[in-house]
Amino acid sequence: MLSLPLAHQMGGRHVLLVGCGAVGMTRVDKLVPTGCKLTVVAPEVDAGLAAYMPGGMEVAAGATWVNKGWEPGQVYRVARREFAAGDEGLEAFAFVLACVPAGGLGARVHALSHARGVQCNVADVPALCDFYFGSQCALGERGLQVLVSSNGAAPRLTALLRADIERRYAALDWDEMCGRLRALRERARALSTQAGLPAEEALRFRMDWMRQVTDAFGLEHCAAMDVERLAGLFGEMAAAAAAGRPRALPADLVSVYTESST
């Protein structure tokens, strides 16, 4: 059975991590950059956690610390103790994760989470995972991410594929591509409402036009597309479609509508 890969928007949402050893730190490294408010409950924590604490501070064993000046990119709360049922208000968390040694604690965290309607992931126990992290690679700095998942069956295989993707496509300017395509999409959205097409037809026209343009430019040329001139072309084609005189994209689209050709 297939899973449904989703890109969750985690900014400001509360997430609980039970256990913070080496495996737990792999979760911390993925969660904190999303801007979520991460609570860590563990008697011992990996030294790497300090990188996400204000000033690299450490929390003493047995103590509970709340980051009252929390900012995105920081841990929100740390409790240096064993997890205790009922004292974490699990229903307040968007997700619960357990990275603990094999035994009953992971199953207990999972059961308590489910009882409160909260999705849970118990590391290395696929049967107790409502979702999987998979292997994630970030291309560029603007948020382009690729997730490879085997539904928990073969994590090392997904890691190999992730590494291959990063190696194959490292030379492309992903930030430039993302920036130009975002700008073109926004311009086309604004222009489609001015062309005189009915709303549903305007949406269909815009999506089909963007698909044809990006297919034509491909990964090799998207970083050089001339957004202003392409937006002008979109406006002309949308107006023509509204007037009942649809036009096809020019055959020399890529050679003409790149910045190098202006």
TrEMBL record:
Gene3D superfamilies noted in UniProt: NAD(P)-binding Rossmann-like Domain (3.40.50.720), Siroheme synthase, domain 2 (3.30.160.110), Siroheme synthase, domain 3 (1.10.3280.10)
UniProt KW keywords: NAD, Oxidoreductase, Porphyrin biosynthesis
* Ranges for domain Siroheme biosynthesis protein Met8 C-terminal: 181-238
| InterPro entries from the UniProt entry | Met8-like, Met8_C, NAD(P)-bd_dom_sf, Sirohaem_synthase_central
GO BP of this protein: siroheme biosynthetic process
Task: Indicate yes or no for the key word NAD.
Answer: yes
- Molecular function per GO: ferrochelatase activity; precorrin-2 dehydrogenase activity
Entry superkingdom: Eukaryota
**Residue ranges of domain Siroheme synthase central in the record:** 143-167
Instruction: Report the SUPFAM superfamilies cross-referenced here.
Output: NAD(P)-binding Rossmann-fold domains, Siroheme synthase middle domains-like
Give the EC number(s) listed in the UniProt record. 1.3.1.76
What is its pathway? Porphyrin-containing compound metabolism; siroheme biosynthesis; sirohydrochlorin from precorrin-2: step 1/1
Q: What is this protein called?
A: precorrin-2 dehydrogenase
